Amino acid sequence: GRVEELGAVGDYITYNICHDSILIVRAAEGGEPGSLKAFHNVCPHRGRQLINVPDGVHSVRGNARKNFVCGFHGWTYNLEGANTFVLDPLDWKGALTPERTCLSALKVDTWGGWIWINMDPACEPLRDFLEPAATMLDPFKLQNMRYRWRKWGIFDCNWKVALEAFNETYHVQTTHPEFNKFPYTPQEPEGF
Fold it and tell me: Is the dihedral of CA 97, 100, 103, 106 positive or negative?
């Protein structure tokens, strides 16, 4: 996602990667928009998704959330991932500590206006990972750019094959003639 999509406190987006669902939210600092937080989109009690992401849907977005409530037992989490409600807490006989009941946090950072997440708690800082490309691209001020449209596609193939096809345009004239300014008619080459 882009940083501008999560501009106000409680704005959130989910991101699915393989079998994991990530929840990214704009938290609050003194009532004002604060930092971005990223968590596994799952209640630590029974593993139910906090924000339902239907099959075949890339992500879910929302605005002005005050908290996240598990639809199974009602456990509630604030925007910083802390548990704020457990039904019948005395029944747990002190076993529910803040460390055991909070959402599982992930590394989140921004660069170029994009939100970056990393599931490795020991990962290097984003800027270090992006170098030297980050320094070379900084003059283009990517953080000031805005996308005009977005389209998600699900391809029944290895993602690398799809990405490779999008990175080379040699196939466009034949495979995607609707993109040609002038109609293309294949011709037999001379001398073959």
Answer: positive
Rounded CA gap, 68 and 76, in Å? Answer: 6
Each residue's pLDDT tens digit, 58-110: 789 999 999 999 999 999 999 999 999 999 988 989 899 999 999 999 999 99
Instruction: Answer for the pair 118, 130: CB distance below 8 angstroms, yes or no.
Output: no
The position carrying tokens 């908290």 is 67
**Residue range 29-65, pLDDT digits in tens:** 766 668 999 999 999 998 999 999 888 787 899 999 9
Look at residues 87, 95, 88, 26 and name the one whose alpha carbon lies nearest to residue 62: 26
Which single residue is written with the structure tokens 């999008």?
166
Residue 57 identity: V
CB 42 within 8 A of CB 50: yes
Torsion sign over Cα 142, 123, 153, 13 = negative
